[in-house]
Specification:
This protein is mainly alpha-helical and 184 residues long. The protein has one domain (16-130, 150-183). Helix content is 45%, strand content 4%. The protein has helices at residues 16-25, 61-64, 71-96, 108-128, 163-183; strands at residues 32-33, 38-39, 50-51, 155-156. The strands form 2 sheets. Strands 1-4 form a two-stranded antiparallel ribbon. Helix 3 (71-96) packs across helix 5 (163-183). The two termini are 30 Å apart.
């Protein structure tokens, strides 16, 4: 539950894909090491390094009290569950740093530095505190590897639809569903 890359400064109306493309091409930008991937919401393209949920499928099944009936529904349910960790991280950040909760009238450069400072302090606290008062669970004791190697052959540098990644997602969904069906 730590931030690995922060890119403040974009307007809230900017398209998700445009912001992501910018993050990937910047010097010292976002690194997505192959064969890794990040979970993204439905506003992004499902492609190399970025697994999106299926469009047109139920997503928050737990909210409705339904069991998944297809591989795509189970995949979306698990995708939603994993992405909830991301949303929780943002919630903790805003709970901890009141300055992030409201619009401020600081100049944009200062706002960007405030956001960055709050994210860095959040990460520091997550690493150093045995118990986080803003969270009921134990902090993750990960390896600390942030995958920030700079070799472009090892990192994903662009986004786009990929038949290979669509097949990967389909196979992942099918495997999850078969495993889930065998236990239910």
């Amino acid at each position: 539950m730590q931030f690995i890359y922060v890119l403040p400064g974009w307007e809230g109306l900017a398209a998700d894909g445009r912001v992501l493309r910018d993050a990937l091409v910047r010097p010292h930008g976002l690194k997505v090491p192959r064969p890794g991937y990040y979970l993204v919401d439905v506003g992004y393209t499902n492609g190399e390094g970025f697994l999106a949920p299926y469009k047109g499928q139920r997503y928050h099944l737990n909210d409705w009290g339904h069991q998944p009936t297809t591989p795509k529904e189970l995949y979306n349910m698990r995708h939603s569950s994993a992405r909830n960790v991301i949303e929780k991280c943002f919630g903790i950040l805003k709970e901890r740093w009141a300055i992030l909760r409201d619009n401020s009238f600081y100049p944009i450069d200062l706002k960007n530095r405030i956001i960055m400072a709050c994210c860095l302090l959040h990460n520091f606290e997550r690493q150093e505190m045995v118990v986080d008062p803003f969270e009921n669970e134990e902090p993750d004791q990960g390896t600390g590897d942030n995958g920030d190697g700079d070799d472009d052959d090892e990192n994903i540098t662009s986004i786009g639809t990929s038949n290979e990644w669509t097949t990967f997602r389909d196979n992942l969904a099918q495997t999850m569903f078969e495993s889930w069906n065998s236990t239910h």
